[in-house]
Design a protein that fits this description.
Belongs to the sigma-70 factor family. ECF subfamily. Residues 104-155 form the RNA polymerase sigma factor 70 region 4 type domain. It comes from Thomasclavelia cocleata. This is RNA polymerase sigma-70 factor, ECF subfamily. The structure is a single chain. By secondary structure, the chain is mostly helical. The chain is 74% helix and 0% strand. The chain has helices at residues 9-28, 34-50, 59-82, 86-92, 96-110, 114-125, 130-136, 141-156. The termini are far apart.
Length: 159
C-alpha cells in the first residue's frame, strides 16, 4: 500500500471473502468446480498479500481485479482440457463462442489505459454510478459519461 504499512490479511479475508467469492462465482458460474473456486479465492488473497506494496487504487478494486484475473486464468487452463471432449462440453452447458468472446473482451480491456481500466472497473464491475465516479475523480459527470462512451466504442472496434 502507499504508506508501506503491512496489512492484516486475516481481517481482509474476513471482510472481503464473500465479495471475492461473488466475483469469482459470477464469472465461473457452472464451469468450474467448487474446489476450483476455493483455490481461486485463496490465490486471490495470497496475491493481494504478496503485492500489497504495489496497490495504487482502493483495496476493494484491487481485490476484484486479482479475483477476475485468477478466474480467467483458471478458465483458460480448463479450456485446454475441455476442448478435447465434446461430451463434457455439452454436459456442462459450456458455450465455446461465449468463452471466446469473453477472452477477446479481456484482451481488449488489457489494451485500455490505466485510467480507462479503472473507470471501466468502477462502473461495470464495482457498480458505482457515474455521479459517484465523477465525484471520486474530481471530474464533471458529463466528462465521465463521455469517457465511458469512448471506452465502450474502443472495446467494440474490430482490430
Amino acid at each position: 500500500m502507499k504508506n508501506n504499512v503491512e496489512i492484516n490479511i486475516d481481517l481482509i479475508i474476513e471482510e472481503y471473502s464473500h465479495y471475492v467469492f461473488t466475483i469469482v462465482y459470477n464469472i465461473a458460474k457452472d464451469i468450474l468446480s467448487y474446489q476450483d473456486i476455493e483455490e481461486i479465492i485463496a490465490d486471490t488473497f495470497y496475491l493481494f498479500w504478496k503485492n500489497q506494496n504495489k496497490i495504487q487504487t482502493n483495496m476493494k478494486a484491487y481485490l476484484a481485479t486479482i479475483a477476475k484475473n485468477c478466474t480467467y486464468n483458471k478458465l483458460k487452463q480448463n479450456k485446454q482440457y475441455i476442448e478435447y471432449d465434446d461430451q463434457i462440453l455439452n454436459e456442462q452447458g459450456y458455450k465455446e463462442d461465449e468463452f471466446n468472446r469473453m477472452l477477446i473482451i479481456e484482451e481488449k480491456i488489457k489494451r485500455l489505459t490505466d485510467q480507462e481500466k479503472e473507470l471501466f472497473h468502477l462502473y461495470y464491475i464495482e457498480g458505482y454510478k457515474i455521479k459517484e465516479i465523477a465525484k471520486m475523480n474530481n471530474q464533471k459527470t458529463n466528462y465521465t459519461k463521455v469517457k465511458l462512451h469512448r471506452i465502450r466504442k474502443k472495446l467494440r472496434r474490430k482490430e
